[in-house]
């Protein structure tokens, strides 16, 4: 049975919404009645996806935003509130993978890029989302972490460091804002069938064998399965859930 939610009258802000898990969540929020602001660096694609949501009876706009640039994040949040008067839900999903390599050989620019988008980008989004939610006295934030925030990986040290950092931000902010009516949680997917993962597997075909061994369900996850967890954490059904890092991992962390 698929749970149903009613987000009618609420405004949801989704980063990295042009594809994969961000797009799946944006569509799910819209189907549940929310007004959805899709943001991404791929401006044309999010506009097209927002138009598709409109064509299916939902309400959505696309806003170009590079989360590694705080002024762009601030502007996107300001536009959201100016157009719709509030911000109820945020799914801070935007992220990139760093090339797998030995830490001793990692170029500084690779480290800086993954930190700027995955960790500082999440921090910037939370900062400006929380200013609005604090003024409202209500809100729900879901951050995209990863099983990489719960475990180590010998060739993905920088990426995993960003996701450990996202979980630290989530837990610390949850403590600060719980009494102000704002819930902050994170999801920790394993390997999901997204364009980013497809690109990774093209260059590392041997990785699929390890994935199938560790994800005991025996398959990749689907973006909609992660979106289902995100919607639950965004909903009143998770009203007593604060500061968690929820694995959505096909049994990976049960190993």
Automatic annotation (TrEMBL):
Pfam family, one: adh_short_C2
A GO molecular-function descriptor: glucose 1-dehydrogenase [NAD(P)+] activity
Record-listed E.C. numbers: 1.1.1.47
SUPFAM superfamilies: NAD(P)-binding Rossmann-fold domains
UniProt keywords, alphabetically: Oxidoreductase
EC top class named in words: oxidoreductase
Cited PANTHER family: DEHYDROGENASES, SHORT CHAIN, ESTRADIOL 17-BETA-DEHYDROGENASE 8-RELATED
Family: Belongs to the short-chain dehydrogenases/reductases (SDR) family.
Official protein name in the record: Glucose 1-dehydrogenase
Annotated source species: Sphingomonas molluscorum
